[in-house]
């Protein structure tokens, strides 16, 4: 069976608000980098078939060296599917010389109405074998916590 990395979180904002945060450049730069990182989007094309390039910089690369350089991960993300307000499917390719990080990872963001809020579930398939599953799931959970904090402030 192929590996599936997953994390979910209830967010106190409606699905449309959460969806909008998945497709807003400034919002993504603010909430997508997990704890211990900051992010910058270099290229932005928010449409099916479009995507973005994000440069993630480790605040302390000592324990977590980058995939692209000693302190960075550069990832090219494509928007494979945009189904407002229920789902965003992204493809992600890391720029790395190490073949353990090669390949295309698919990240699916499922948004389901749950009372006055949204249950957000992220599943990742095709995860490069160099990415530790527990660390990846912790990173997804951290991004979800950042997303919740970002959209709940505006709700």
TrEMBL record:
Q: Superkingdom, according to UniProt? A: Bacteria
Read off the InterPro entries from this record: ASHA1/2-like_C, START-like_dom_sf
Q: Activator of Hsp90 ATPase homologue 1/2-like C-terminal domain: from which residue to which, for each copy?
A: 12-152
Q: Which Pfam families match?
A: AHSA1
The entry's family comment says: Belongs to the AHA1 family.
What is the name of the protein in this document? SRPBCC family protein
| Species of provenance | Micromonospora robiginosa
């Amino acid at each position: 069976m192929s590996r599936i990395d997953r994390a979910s979180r209830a967010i106190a904002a409606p699905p449309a608000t959460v969806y909008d945060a998945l497709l807003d450049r400034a919002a993504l730069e603010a909430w997508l980098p997990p704890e211990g990182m900051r992010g910058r989007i270099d290229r932005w094309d928010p449409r099916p078939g479009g995507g973005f390039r994000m440069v993630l910089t480790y605040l302390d690369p000592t324990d977590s060296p980058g995939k692209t350089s000693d302190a960075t991960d550069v990832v090219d993300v494509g928007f494979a599917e945009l189904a407002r307000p229920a789902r965003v499917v992204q493809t992600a390719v890391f720029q790395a010389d190490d073949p353990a990080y090669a390949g295309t990872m698919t990240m699916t963001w499922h948004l389901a109405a749950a009372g006055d809020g949204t249950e957000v579930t992220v599943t990742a398939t095709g995860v490069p074998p160099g990415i530790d599953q527990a660390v990846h799931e912790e990173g997804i959970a951290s991004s979800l916590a950042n997303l919740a904090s970002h959209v709940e402030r505006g709700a």
